[in-house]
Amino acid sequence: MEHDFLDRYSRLRSPVHRVPAAAKLATALAIVVFLTWVPRGEWVWLQGAAVVLLAITGLAGLPWGFVIRRLLFAELFVVGVAVMSLFQPDGLRIFLFLVAKSTLCLLAMVLLANTTPFAELLRALKAARVPALLVTTLSLMYRYMFVLLDEGQRMRRARLSRTFTGRRARSWR
Question: What is the value of pTM for the model shown?
Fold first, then answer.
């Protein structure tokens, strides 16, 4: 297995990486709860949270391009859900506010996931008395995601070795 797209930056040596996993988990959850309680139209609170999260990103030493790509990938789902607010009166402002709140929540989770190894997150969840069934399910999901990726790569390599043309119609006939 050579997949490191999840834990690529979780073992760097920065002040953020040295914080215990339980503290990072509690902080990330506190930020998400805080952001969900921010009343509509209170942009000052979102700006403050954005400054804090961007400072933490810089302090963690995560590459900005990597963080932005992760956010853009998840942002498709955020926009898909928030688009329903466009049909309300004053919908554009509500839409922009929802997207901003959701983006900041996503940034908090991206920071948590990329500054903490997954095994440490699982230990912190177990110590926080999260139901054992959920922790076990998460650990199995993490493990078998890599097994499925390896099998997909193996099957792709096998197909490529049996087909000699690049055109799909000819190669599958």
Answer: 0.79
